[in-house]
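Comment thread on ticket #2218

A.B. wrote:
> Attaching the input chain for the structure job we discussed in standup.
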Amino acid sequence: MQFKDFLSENRQDKNSVLEFLTGTLNLDQEDFNINEDLSVSLFVDLDISNNSASSLRRIPVKFREIQGSVWISNCKLETLIGLPAKIDGGVYITNARITNLRYCPQQLGDDGDIVLQNNRELVSLEGCPSDIPHDFSLNDCHKITSLEGGPKTVGHNYKVDTCDGLTSIKGMPTKIGKHLALCNNRNLKSLEGISKMLKECGGKLDVSGSRFTSSIMGLLVIKGFTGIEYKFGGAEATKAFEIIFKCRKDGKDALDCQEALFDAGLDEFAHI
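C.D. wrote:
> Ran it. Output below, let me know if you need it in another format.
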C-alpha cells in the first residue's frame, strides 16, 4: 500500500497523529517525531498491550522507524501494517488476532527476536523476516500447519512448541546458530525431509513431548548437532534417536544407521 493511500484510508492529519501517540499510546513528546509526510520516527519501544491501544484492529499511523522493539499483546490487532521495514529491536506478539506476518519489519536489531505466542488466528508465517539475528519462537499457535514462510537463518535458538495443528516441518531454516526445539507438537509425527532443508545446527535437538513415529534419520547428515533431549515421547522413538546419535558419534554412514534401525525393529524411523 502506498503511503498516500494509507493516509487517505486512515484520514490522518498531524493533530490526529499526535493524539494517537500521546493519548492512545501514552508517549511523551520527546519519544517521537512526526515527519512532514506524517510518518512517525519513534525513539522508544512501540507497545500495544493492555492499554488504551488494545482495542485497535490496525495501527492508524505509519512508522518510518522504531528505535526499539515492537510489543503487541492481549489486543485485537489483526494486521501489522504501519510498521517500518527496519527496527532496532525485535518483534514480540502474544494473544493478538493477526493471521500472518505481512508488514512485519524485515530487518531487526543485532539481538532481535521474533516471538509469536498464543496467537490463535495465526495461519501462516508469510511475511516473517528471512534472517533473524537471535531467537525465533512459535508457541501455542494451533492453526499453523507447517513452517512455510518462516525464517531461513536463525542466529540463536529456533523453537516451535505446542502447536497442535503442525503436521509438517516444511519451511524449516537452512541454518540455526544454537538449539533446535520441536516440543509438544502432538500431531507432528515425522521429520521427513529435514536434511533437505536444515544444513547446520550449532546446538542440541530437543523434541521432548513430541511422539514421532517415522522418518527421523535425516538428522544423521545435518552438521553440528551436539546432542538430543527426548522425554515423554515413547520408547520406540527414544530408542531410534539414541541409535541415530550414536551413529553420528561413531561416524557411521546412512546405510550403517539404517541397518541398526532395522535390527532394532524400527523400520519406519529409517526413512529420510
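A.B. wrote:
> Thanks. Noting for the ticket: Residues 61 and 82 are 6 Å apart (CA to CA).
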